[in-house]
Amino acid sequence: MYRQGCDGSILLDDTSTFIGEKNAGPNANSARGFEVIDAIKTQVEAACRATVSCADILALAARDGVNLLGGPNWSVPLGRKDSRTASQSAASANLPGPDSSLATLITMFGNKNLSPRDMTALSGAHTIGRSQCQFFRNRIYNETNINASFATLRQGTCPRSGGNTNLAPFDVQTADGFDNAYYQNLVGQRGLLHSDQELFNGGSQNALVQQYSNSPSQFSADFVTAMLKMGGLLPSSGTQTEVRLNCRRPN
Ligand code: HEM
To answer: Average pLDDT, stretch 227-232?
Structure first.
């Protein structure tokens, strides 16, 4: 996720003057695929120099990725600019971790003006992708609000000790399909992360999760609304911005 607004800051490599976000706890070894953005940027620069920001490329790639996996399509407002710096400490402080409670998730998204509904819809992105064992180990061995056969299944590739970086799909039904199965999983207590299952654990988001689990179109509509809101977060005024020529470093 972005932390200082959508300014491509996550794409910056560490430099001698700042430590970037790539190696902040919530992103280290997790945020990846930077070479894909580099390849796109190289082609865009060849066609039209210094015009399309890395932040816009990232927002478009997110939209296209969702759509290619069967999810909704939407138009992405463009014109974002790229930051000249990144902050590891702020990325660590502003991104919720996998052990977060519902209250923490609501507060941290709220800090970015994203409502609980936005947060619950955006979490549906966990209908695709993988998580490392170290982020769900405690859940599959020690939690009780988990389907027993699902816990056993996941324990198969996530041992009690070792195997920290072993991957498991978030969505046990359709791992690489962008659909509403994430919410069906939550209703069946098959959420992978503690933070996922928090959305359906008897709290304020239960009814909405239930609704998304029954209505793919409601989920798609709310996901798009929330992506537009998150994608519209701007860097705070006064920050210096530019169209970076290489997404990995300031010009
Ligand atoms: C609600 C708070 C959230 C928490 C606590 C959280 C946490 C995590 C964690 C721990 C992973 C696994 C990383 C790894 O194992 O390396 C992950 C993966 C992922 N997250 Fe989230 N996330 C949250 C919200 C979001 C949002 C809002 C989106 C996008 C809209 C998102 C999209 C993804 C995707 C696509 C992956 C899979 C990446 C891959 O397979 O390479 N997450 N998340």
So the answer is: 96
Q: What spacing in Å lies between the alpha carbon of 167 and ligand 1's midpoint?
A: 13
State the pairing for strand pair 130-132/82-83: unpaired
Pocket of ligand 1 (CB under 6 A): 1, 29-30, 32, 96-98, 100, 105, 122-123, 125-126, 128-132, 135, 193, 195
Residues 184 and 223 in one domain: yes
Number of domains within the chain: 2
Query: Residues comprising the binding site?
Result: 5, 7, 9, 21, 96, 126-127, 171, 174, 179
CB-CB neighbours of 77 under 10 Å: 11
What range defines the domain where residue 70 resides? 9-97+233-242
127 CA from centroid of ligand 1 (Å): 10
> Judging by beta carbons within 10 Å of its beta carbon (0-12, 13-18, 19+), is residue 63 exposed, middle or buried?
buried
Instruction: Render pLDDT for 180-213 as a digit per residue (tens, 0 to 9).
Output: 999 999 999 999 999 999 999 999 999 999 999 9
- Whether residues 87 and 40 fall in one domain: yes
Burial 123-140 (b: 16+ CB within 10 A, else e): bbbbbbbebbbebbbebb
**Coil, helix or strand for 59?**
helix
Report the pLDDT value the prediction gives residue 60, as an integer from 0 to 100: 98
Cα angle for residues 70, 156, 142 (degrees, 5° grid): 95
Assess if residue 24 is contained within a domain: yes
Residues 14 and 76 in one domain: yes
pLDDT tens digits for 15-55? 888 888 887 777 777 788 999 999 999 999 999 999 999 99
